[in-house]
Every structure is written in C-alpha cells, then in structure tokens.
Task: structure prediction
Amino acid sequence: MTQKKNVVEIIQYPSASEAKSFIEKHHLKKPEKTILQIIGSCTVDYRGRAKSVLDWGERFIIIKPDGNLMVHQPVLREPINWQPAGSTTEFRVDDELFIVYSRHRKPSEKMIISFKEIFSIVICELKDTAQLKIVGMESDVVNHIIKDPSCVEDGLRIHKQEKQVDSGMIDLFAYDKSHTPVIIEVKRSLATISNVHQLRMYVNDMRHESESANVRGILCAPRIPDMIKNLLLDYNLEWKKVEHEIVLPDDKQKTLTDF
Result:
C-alpha cells in the first residue's frame, strides 16, 4: 500500500497580488489544516497589551492551523513577535504592499505585517501526533539518589526532598552515618559557579536555623570541572559525581555523559 505524500505548495518572488491569490487558493480553503510560511522584507505593527513597531527587515512568519502566528528574525530562538492560538488572519493588498492582518479577540490584540518584497511562500499540511517525552531532568537524578543514597555516600539517609530555607528550596536534606545534617544540591549536567554559591547559601541558612556549624553541603552532578571543585574546597563544601542511566522511549539506554 502506497502512503499518500503531503503536498507542498511553493511560490518564489511573487508580487503582492500573486501572493494573495496563491494563499487564497492553497491556504484559505482549509486554514485549520495547512501551515503557512512567508519569507520576505516586512514591517510589524502590534497593538494589544502593549504597543510595538518593528521597522523594515528580512524575516519569516509562520501561521499554524491553530491560529498561532510567529515572526522570526534571522537570529535568536524566540520569535520577535507573535499572536496566540485562536487568532484569525486576513490577507490584503494595499498600494503594492502585501498585508497580513492578524487579530485575537480576548485579550484584544492586533498585528499588521506589511511586506514590500516576498522571497517565498510555502504552504503544506503536517501530521504529528507524537507526545514529547522528556528524560534527563534534575528530578531523575534526585530520584536516583533517593532510591540509592549510597551512590553519594555509604550510610547516607535521605530525610526530606525539597526542604524550604530562607534562600530557596533544598533538593535533598539528609543525615550521614554520624547523624550530621547534609544538604545535597543536584544538577543534571555540568556544575557551575552559581551552583556552588547556591549550595553555600543553603548551608549557611541551615547553620543559622539549627544553630550548629556542623552542616555539610554536597554538590552532585555528572560533570564537575576542576575549577568548581577548587571553589567548593574554598567554601568547605563537597562534591560527588553522580550518574544514572536514562531509558529513552526507544528502550536504548544512555548515561548523562552521552548528552
């Protein structure tokens, strides 16, 4: 059985009127199913919870079947401007400019994108029902330590997860085999300077709270650079390299060091 391929419609360097006709033919008949991408030189005028004007520049916009509209510049990950799901979009020609008019009712937001030149328009249908499965979170490392505290230190007993102190939330609060309080700060990848200062503040909070100077702090991560180890030593703190296996959805196993 031959699977039907998705049809992708493309036009390059259309005039404003050609762009409007192309979109009417291939997108507006079923906007709830097709994704529209326009690349060209445009301005963006937004009026809503705030006001913004973006002067001429070469950008690409994406309009999704749920009404989401995103304006992207050539750099950076996040869109420079956007309209939320539920927005409706109209297309006009005004004085040789191609106008994309997007409107969202509640809250009231309007965006006008004016193209003086269009490089390309792409229209297609995409099917995607997969669910995102996230692995390798800090909570995975925390749970690993809870199940097997000996991976940090023999005789360690986990007393509480997410203990609140003045400067934040401790990942794990434990006692060692000598019943000394132990604060464990967990990171899923590379330990950083800010992680050291965070652990130091937690330890100081616990010392003030318990009126005892005998509180240990351990930073747990799969990768701890020598510079971080030296800083921990300066503050009389400790570290432990902790790795755990991650079971990916395809049942292949990797450790955190593979990422």
Q: What stands out?
A: The chain has two domains: 9-125, 138-258. The domain at 9-125 is CATH 2.70.180.20 (Protein Yojf; Chain: A;).
